[in-house]
């Protein structure tokens, strides 16, 4: 889907499809954590698709995961700074990862 501005970089032929594995994995993770994500990715059963592309879905599912993680971390109530320190370590590990197939 085009026209939203933020993801014009996926307008090139085949670019949106490069986000398919991340969209599917993020949805699987969200559903596994209890978030009710509909099966509406491109190419899914007739009548179920919502006309948004893989990049749109990847963003929506990742935002859901972020909200789930924020909520779960708040419920765990770790000591001040611990979650931030752990986050910084994971972010450093992901420095070369681009999320696409
Ligand atoms: Zn959808």
Kindly name the structural category.
mainly alpha
**Number of continuous helical runs:** 3
Instruction: Count the E strands.
Output: 0
Largest sheet: none
Helical proportion? 40-55%
Low-pLDDT regions: none
The fraction of residues in strands falls at under 5%
Radius of gyration: 16 Å
Large-scale geometry: flat
Which small compounds were modeled alongside the protein?
Answer: zinc ion
Report the average pLDDT across residues.
88
Question: What order do the helices and strands follow?
Answer: HHH
Query: Between the first and last Cα atoms, what is the distance in angstroms?
Result: 19 Å
What does it look like?
- There is one protein chain.
- Helix content is 48%, strand content 0%.
- The model has no long low-confidence stretch (mean pLDDT 88).
- The protein is mostly helical.
- 15% of the residues are buried.
- It starts with 19 loop residues before the first helix and ends in an 8-residue tail after the last helix.
- It contains three helices and no strands.
- The site of zinc ion (ZN) has 4 residues, from loops.
